[in-house]
Design brief:
By secondary structure, the chain is α/β, with parallel strands linked by helices. The protein folds into 2 domains: 165 residues, 3-Layer(aba) Sandwich (Rossmann fold); 32 residues, no CATH class. The chain is built from 8 helices and 7 strands. The protein has a 7-stranded mixed sheet, with helices on both faces. Helix 3 packs across helix 4. The mean pLDDT is 88.
């Protein structure tokens, strides 16, 4: 079990995406998170009336989430997750763990190395970082503070479910996100499948 965190603020925020989709989120901030970062939880849909909420632990990606970079699938995953969670009821945890935990500048340094032929994991290692430095202790604290100790998890990354379970969260089911493939991110997605076992179907039929 992790140390408890507290609820700091709750505020209603209307959301509008570039494709016109709109919804309203209850944005929650916290005290006492283990890493001291300003992570957010967005309550979507009937999150109060759902016994087992649908949850996505989404790591911040400024290039993909904000600027629409096609080098990853983060922006489309975020957009998909908001609608799926709003339909079901649950929480989007927006975690300040840019670049799989190495930070924005280092992520862009890794991009430069990828342009020379390295894959995303080899580029991280060349910079002295691990393949994935994310820690989900704060995410587990957030879920406990939100009275959500049992969840269904929206992810393609088996490490998220493994870490959350080890931290005392009951992950009942894991639901994969969609396949968001394009010419610019295909090599990146293949690396995630081959190196860390992400459940992404990159067969021609799925990618069509």
């Amino acid at each position: 079990m992790t140390e408890p965190a507290g609820i700091r603020t709750r505020v209603q925020v209307p959301l509008r995406f570039g494709d016109g989709y709109t919804t309203t989120a209850e944005v929650v901030t916290f005290t006492g998170l283990a890493d001291g970062k300003e992570h957010l939880a967005l309550g979507l849909g009937d999150f109060r009336g759902t016994e087992i909420p649908l949850v996505r632990a989404h790591s911040e990606c400024m290039t993909g989430d904000v600027f629409g970079s096609a080098r990853c699938d983060c922006g489309p995953q975020l957009r998909e997750a908001v609608e799926r969670i709003a339909d079901r009821g649950g929480w989007l945890l927006y975690l300040r763990q840019e670049g799989r935990g190495i930070g924005l500048y280092a992520k862009l340094d890794a991009y430069a190395l990828q342009d020379t032929g390295l894959d995303t994991y080899a580029a991280n290692r060349a910079l002295g970082h691990g393949d994935d430095e994310r820690d989900y202790t704060a995410a587990a604290q957030m879920l406990q503070a939100l009275d959500a100790p049992s969840i269904d998890l929206l992810t393609n990354n088996p490490d998220k479910a493994a870490q959350l379970r080890a931290l005392g969260i009951h992950v009942r089911e894991v639901a994969p996100t969609g396949v968001h493939v394009n010419e610019a991110n295909l090599r990146y997605l293949h690396a995630k499948v081959e190196a860390t076992g992400h459940t992404i179907d990159l067969s021609p039929a799925a990618a069509a």
